[in-house]
Amino acid sequence: MARLRTPDGQLLPAPTSFLRVTTGRGPFQDPPGGLSAHPEMLTPFLQAGAALLDQRMQLAEHDADLSVEEQEHVIHSVLLGQAVVTGLQAYAAGGDRELLELVNDLATTLDTIGPLGFAYLQRLGAINAAAGLDELQGVALLPEEYPHAVACVLRRAALAGCSVEPDAQARLDWAGYRPPAPEKDPLHPTRAALTPPATREPGRMAREQDLRRLAQSRLEGERNAALLLLHVNARDRLENAPLISVLDTAQVLLLSLRREHQDGADGAVTEALLGILGPLHQDLGAPVLPEARRFNRHQQGEVSFHSARARRLLRRLRAERRRGPTPQERRQHNALWDVLGALDRDLAAGLTPDPDLRAWLLVLGLQGLTTTARAPGMDLPPMVQLAAQVSGIDPLWAWERTQPRADLGADLHGALSLLVDCGQLLRLEGTGAWETWSGPVRRLVGQAAGHLFATARRAGLRLPEHGFLERSFGRFGPLRAVPLSAGEWEQVQDRYRAALQVAVETLTALHEQTDREETLQETAPDLSGHSPTETEPAAPKATPDSVALPAHVLAARARLAGGRVVLLGGVPSPHHHAALVRALGLRELDWIGSGEYAHGTHAHAHVTGDTAVVILAIRWMAHAHNTLRDVARAQDVPFVMHPGGLSPSSVAWQIMQQVSGQLDARG
Known about the structure:
Elements: E1 2-3, E2 18-19, H1 34-37, H2 43-62, H3 68-92, H4 97-113, H5 117-130, H6 146-159, H7 166-174, H8 191-194, H9 205-214, H10 220-233, H11 243-261, H12 268-283, H13 290-298, H14 303-322, H15 327-348, H16 355-370, H17 382-391, H18 407-424, H19 434-458, H20 466-474, H21 486-523, H22 551-560, E3 564-568, H23 574-584, E4 588-592, H24 603-606, E5 611-617, H25 626-634, E6 639-642, H26 648-666
Parallel strand pairs: 3-4, 3-5, 5-6
Antiparallel strand pairs: 1-2
Helix pairs in contact: 2-3, 3-4, 3-6, 3-7, 4-5, 4-6, 9-10, 10-11, 10-12, 10-14, 11-12, 11-13, 11-14, 15-16, 16-17, 16-18, 16-20, 18-19, 19-20, 19-21, 22-26
């Protein structure tokens, strides 16, 4: 039973204040007792898994088109896949919770590097539920942990009486497995491995030292709680860390420790940690901690259970710091770069940017924010920060309610992703297929936009620039008043897939034709009589009369005239340097090329007290800009994340879009 509340948190009056929720049947259902009581259920599934591993081996050996990275992924997928199969066999023969935990981690890791992991994760959901571990979620292993995880599975399989069959051993040998020495348990990393980087905020350094001292407690629960609080304290060094969950897990663990200490044990460390947790909670604006609320009412679970949950969260935080972009994030980045590229082309041509581009920048910015864990004082991943700054969205918009793992965050992200996917179909405009598909595509975009607005409205939220977005997407048709139902969602997905197939075929044929034409032009004989020579890019035309400059350039010039600007990224060019200085009326432009700034240790030498603004050309810099950004922020110097070319028009537009308010405030 669940209590229902209004969007402002008030309880609904009886008899509508309770809702009975029944979970649906998943793709698999295990009988009571699970695999340990019915191991024969697993045999067909594991046999099919072994056959898939053999197919992956054949792929690696015979597909000459695989890149080195793809070959590495195939080899790792065979290694981890065989470990999952062996681990499940051992668990069915009488394994324990930690073995099931490790198998979940192996399957989660497998899912990040190849297509095999998804089927195992589906099956593991039922296995976890039958074992009473519904909440168990896998944590991706680090590459250096792979051999240790395999060794741990093989050791536990031997203890359960499961021998490794010759075919299974052959797969492990093929994947290059060698027993590590010494073997380390990936489920129990060292304290040092789980400790986050130290904060750089002077006001939090004393607390940092206290927490590091408390993290040396003899009790694992107190150590884990201290490490969780260290993550909140050092949030200025983190990205995409679910700090509400971190605080919630730490408080539940500490409350369970306090309950245990009532039996006479020394609780000084626990009380000290609770004393630190309170101010950290206030630093974040005192967000609701749902697990702690439930624990205060029911106080369920032993300390060992809550300590294990904390340890898994610490491992997940470490994996998040080490991982690369996911396929979903790559798609979001590509969509963002497409829009930013179109924006930069307009600016370079001296045109006022199309309002449609601004609408899509807002949508992409919201998509990035709802897929990112956010909190006050914590950095955003570079591409998410770029989308937020260029679109002008407050990075902390509805941050508590739209965390990625929250129900509302998932709903909004799904609605935003649908709108972005349907919006990609607009690329058909101007092709031969548009005459047939313009109507269906426009209706899809309108339905997706209406679903997004209705989802936000039902949650009591108003999207940033809501009126502008409604006007922009209203031209695709009437916007619906309620979110899509489950059936309507499936219908929209079916129509989207049909249009997507046409779009892929049409755009692929168009690109192939363009490539052929470019090849013909490149191979055509030169009849001019001149030999080809390398030429320097054309210098920007001088504009001695400032009246000829676009309005946004004049606005930036009014704020920066006579000032000093630091530009990081690209290849310094005398012509472009002179054009920027002239157009913006600068006293000095300190342009640091990408090749001159690989590590960022000299950032303080560039950002001085008289620096008006720092411009980070992130298209060429990846993460190398972080140090300069941090120094600029520490000295209260406005910084611009610039994604485009370095023409005066493009640079000035980003300055006005991102930091004009800060420049005005500085006078």
